[in-house]
Amino acid sequence: MISKTLFLAAALLAMPAAAKERADHYEAMTYNIRLDVASDGDNGWPHRRTALTALVAYRAPDLVGMQEVLQHQKQAVEADLPAYQFVGVARDDGKDKGEYSMLGFRRDRFTLAGSGTFWLSPTPEVPSKGWDAALPRIATWARLHDRTANRTLLVVNTHFDHIGEVARQESARQIRRWIDAERKPGESAILMGDFNSPATSNPYAAIVEPGNGALRDSRTISRTPHYGPLGTFTGFDIARMDASPIDHIFVSNDVTVLRHATLTDQTGGKLPSDHYPVVADLCIGKGC
Can you give the pTM of this predicted structure? Predict the structure, then answer.
């Protein structure tokens, strides 16, 4: 009886520390899911949907940013992942036309305190193309209250243009300024997405270079060395090995990065998307 009592007491003493550790930890995922186009053939969305959403459900990230999401894909993802609430609008009309860069978060952990979408252009409040961009580009943001840890996060998900070099550079500057202006005291910031910019590029440098609003690349500051290939775009070619990622997760200075990985899951030799998902295990707080 005495031994059982001591065991229970020890377990009870350990519980707050374990709970605190969980409260301080977050997994963030960015995933370009590839829009649904008939020309993809066997790699088309109907053949990939189940594997893609099953991967996300298995990882169960606290935060997930998705790019290239069409309206019917958004509905499919929401149906397959009921544990998540998603926010965002489509880029062509600010409603449901064109691609979403939607942002998801776990319903059992977060309360939505605010959200919105702005365009990467000189006229961010209205649907528009910026600079030399080939297409309208957007950033979707959410201010999330973490009920577990009683803290607030500012999370942004984006997709930079694939053609316009000036547009990518200006988009990086615009988002950095926006986060610096909107981030509240004591609020941690996470920026993720498909930046179409390798780590050697000027847009990447514009995000991480020292100064007001500077963010850090979670891959380069991870306590555990990065796991998986560096390249994140495959074009559905499993053998492709790019030298640098174009999908990134950036964090503010108060965020500790514990682990970082590029996930290469496949089913029957088929990839769920033409990009690999990128995940980062983050820690916020004194216990990190």
Answer: 0.92
